[in-house]
Specification:
Residues 409-523 form the Hint domain. By secondary structure, the chain is α+β, with helices and mostly antiparallel strands. It has 16 helices and 14 strands. It has a three-stranded antiparallel sheet with strand order 3-4-12, with no helix packed on it. A three-stranded antiparallel sheet has the order 6-5-11, with no helix packed on it. The protein has a two-stranded antiparallel sheet with strand order 1-2.
């Protein structure tokens, strides 16, 4: 009765298959590689269990990444003889479909054309004839006026080969009546939903009842269908165990998509804790400490170190937990991948598959190997994440261990002369925020007006000054050029820590500038290089000034200096 049931269902639901479009691209295919993938899990470098600043990222990560990529590419590009033929056939069909302009056909024309061109179920001499009819506008107009039952009956008759079981079935009046009754019921959404929930046995029982209602009993069905063919029982499918193991592995991986594993949960906890520390630090009141305010700077330094210590403690706490979670994850991945690897090896990586019914399994088995490679990549990614955490810990440790150093004021006495864009010079004590002074665009190598954003004034105590003499002949042997004419010397008074901008964009303290360093100075509307000639202590000043500009620099007596 099962075969009769399937035949009836095929005929009853033929009309439901309104469109069967082939993919434009070749069908996806791949073939397993004859390689044990499980050993690759052991090639993933193990992560550190505690912070260790002597560690570097192992080269094994890059080597493993290359090996996994090569295996994945080999799997994806390998084909069985059947797969290669199917791909070639699909490409040929795709080309014919494109050339025939199927995209401009009606739905009915597409169905008929695809049956004819692609050799899908129903493709025979009758399908060819139906395809020709469907491309006739007059016929398609008439066909569209038929009821669903009439369409189904017509298609069944046209598609059934002469003398076939299908033809005897569709020509039987009792069957036609049962079919019409069934299709009428299928118009009811409630009936359709209930039908789809029935088991095959329940559907089969219902069909028997419906056909008896219309006078078609089991004996008549067998008579219509003709004598059953006796076939020898098929041997068990050789790939069943491997396919089941593959399905189980894929199911576990799919279930994890919305449920982070223990390692990821720990990572999320660490990230949340670090973010909480950052928010707490941002919420703390912080008073800006000016240059020279050593007490204020010390307070901010201690507060910053406290924040860094909290972050370091969290990293040191979570790193052993993450390493343990990684080890557990490795065991878990190996345990769930091993059954598939074992079953795949038993069938010699698909070479034992000979029956046509199992040929389609080859791609799925190759997909299982791809899943295992993804598991290895995940494990490597988890280990790398711990190495990155270790690296970040070491960076923070180096920052945390930096000793406190008070940032003293970097300034000029009130009489220092600042260059303006119009060529004038004014005392720095007369400059106000919003004024424009002459600055330098180092990236473009040109002078430009820059706006003063802030003026720093310090008068807390007497500030030590140094006098620089700038502008001398190029008498340094390593310059490799002939001696240049002497340039007029410029004398600058400033605090010893004020930065001087050099030609190579360094900002060197006034007390650390060397005669070999190239200093930038104005020469009319251009900038030229010159050198330090002399440096001498120059007493103190009770009040000093500094400008903060858009470019971070400005000119004092024609020499380019930094804002800080």
């Amino acid at each position: 009765m099962q075969s009769t049931h399937r035949l009836v269902n095929f005929l009853f639901f033929l009309m439901a298959l309104l469109l069967a479009l082939l993919p434009i691209a070749a069908a996806f295919a791949q073939k397993p590689v004859k390689t044990e993938i499980i050993p690759l899990f052991d090639k993933v470098p193990a992560p550190p269990t505690v912070p260790n600043c002597t560690l570097k990222l192992p080269a094994g990560f890059a080597d493993l990444e290359r090996q996994v990529a090569q295996l994945s590419q080999t799997i994806a590009s390998s084909r069985t003889a059947e797969q290669s033929k199917e791909e070639a056939d699909m490409k040929a069909v795709s080309q014919r479909v494109t050339e025939a302009g199927v995209e401009n056909m009606s739905e009915a024309q597409k169905l008929a054309y695809m049956q004819q061109a692609a050799n899908i179920p129903g493709s025979n001499a009758q399908a060819v004839q139906l395809a020709q009819q469907m491309q006739d506008p007059a016929f398609t107009a008439k066909f569209s006026q038929m009821s669903d039952v009439e369409k189904a009956q017509y298609l069944q008759k046209q598609m059934a080969a002469p003398g076939s079981t299908q033809q005897r079935m569709v020509n039987n009046p009792a069957f036609q009546a049962a079919q019409a009754d069934f299709m009428q019921q299928m118009q009811n959404p409630g009936f359709r939903a209930a039908w789809e929930k029935k088991s095959e046995a329940e559907q089969d029982a219902y069909m028997q009842q419906l056909m008896r209602k219309h006078g078609l009993d089991e004996t008549q069905l067998k008579a219509v269908a003709g004598p059953a063919k006796t076939t020898a029982p098929l041997a068990p499918l050789v790939a069943t165990a491997a396919m089941e193991a593959n399905a189980k592995l894929a199911g576990i991986i799919a279930a994890e998509a919305n449920s982070p594993d223990a390692f990821l949960r720990l990572q999320q906890q660490l990230q949340a804790s670090l973010e909480a520390v950052s928010k707490e630090a941002a919420a703390r009141p912080r008073v800006e400490a000016r240059e020279g305010d050593c007490q204020g700077q010390q307070r901010n330094y201690d507060q910053y170190r406290s924040y860094q210590k909290q972050r370091l403690d969290l990293m040191a706490k979570y790193m052993p937990q993450l390493a343990a979670a990684w080890q557990a994850r490795k065991k878990e991945l190996i345990a769930r991948s091993t059954p598939f690897q074992t079953e795949l090896a038993k069938i010699h990586y698909g070479d034992d598959i000979k029956r046509p019914q199992e040929k389609a399994f080859v791609s799925s088995l190759a997909g299982g190997q791809q899943l295992m490679l993804q598991e290895i990549t995940q494990l490597a990614g988890y280990s790398q994440a711990i190495y990155e955490l270790n690296s970040k810990y070491c960076e923070l440790t180096a920052d945390y261990n930096k000793p406190f150093k008070c940032e003293l004021a970097t300034c000029f006495p009130p009489s220092a002369r600042v260059n303006l864009p119009d060529g004038r010079q004014v005392h720095i004590s007369r400059i106000r925020p919003g004024d424009e002074v002459l600055g330098y665009d180092a990236a473009m190598g040109r002078l430009r007006p820059v706006r003063v954003q802030r003026v720093d004034i310090h008068s807390d105590h007497d500030y030590a000054l140094v006098q620089l003499t700038i502008g001398t002949p190029a008498v340094y042997a390593d310059l490799g050029t002939a001696a240049a004419l002497a340039t007029p010397a410029i004398k600058l008074l400033m605090t010893p820590n004020h930065p001087i901008i050099t030609a190579d964009r360094q900002a060197l303290r006034a007390d650390q500038l060397q005669p070999s360093d190239e200093v930038l100075r104005l020469n009319e509307n251009e900038v030229e290089t010159t050198h330090l000639a002399d440096r001498q202590p120059a007493g103190t000043a009770w009040e000093v000034y500094n400008l903060r500009t858009e470019t971070g620099n400005y000119f004092v007596s024609g020499v380019l200096v930094g804002s800080k």
